[in-house]
């Protein structure tokens, strides 16, 4: 009997072996090679890799352009995730309360998430256009002067953050709404019988029951925001004067425009470590908080 089960396990391993090989070459090997490349100097003009140790990482902390991109990434990630989760939560609660036309409103809210990123970026570039954009046109009706949204160093990054929030908050709404619909209505009925008002029901029933979903959703959106590229690249290109450049765009430029592969690899590993460290710490404190409540 033991021989039979052992043979079954060996056969099971053989079945998943092709998938493991594919995962290794798609995920594991590029990561290992990227770490190896980050310790070497490599560019378009050198055939051989020259080992430089930690110099690429040392140069990063002295590079004002990299530090600026890192700061922009933190700003981009914080405000994007904050409003994506907040608007997604509000939209989910409102949809949960609607009894007529819920499916129609849900489809309309999901449209931004369905639109391809590059198409959304092109549309918002026209909306932000200083001369022909509808946003400036509406402002002119109110008596305000035109604003160069994507050409002002102080407004370019916030303007793209708005687009990122608009694009991703429907996903947050969908996840939260699915969890809300799984909460038994009898719990709310019992709370109303006990005299609980809407705020008390939300704080003491709804929020604790969706807290786990909100934690995972926040982590997922944070990882996506750290790795963002499309909107910044398509709408501002990191400008003006690199005021909206984030790490994803900087890695792309160093690797594929400047051909500084070693430096780009070090930047990518730095970003990977930041995301990994944040995920570990976030999950640790989230788990402890939920266990303590």
Which secondary structure elements does this structure contain, and how are they paired or packed?
Elements: H1 2-38, E1 40-41, E2 50-51, H2 55-62, H3 64-97, H4 102-114, H5 117-127, H6 134-141, H7 156-181, H8 185-193, H9 198-226, H10 230-235, H11 247-257, H12 261-292
Antiparallel strand pairs: 1-2
Helix pairs in contact: 1-12, 3-7, 3-9, 4-7, 7-9, 9-12, 11-12
In short:
With 293 residues, the chain is mainly α. It has helices at residues 2-38, 55-62, 64-97, 102-114, 117-127, 134-141, 156-181, 185-193, 198-226, 230-235, 247-257, 261-292; strands spanning 40-41, 50-51.
Please tell me about this protein's structure.
It is built from twelve helices and two strands; from the N terminus they run αββααααααααααα. With 293 residues, it is mostly helical. It has one domain: MetI-like fold (Orthogonal Bundle). A two-stranded antiparallel sheet has the order 1-2. Strand 1 and strand 2 form a beta hairpin. The longest helix is centred in the N-terminal third of the chain and has 37 residues. It is globular. The mean pLDDT is 88.
